[in-house]
Amino acid sequence: MIDIERIGEICKALNEVGHVCNPRVVPIDKFDLTGFKIQVSDVPDFEVEYIKQTGPGMAGDDFEATVAYSFGEFMFVIDCNT
Question: pTM of the entire structure?
Answer without folding.
Answer: 0.81
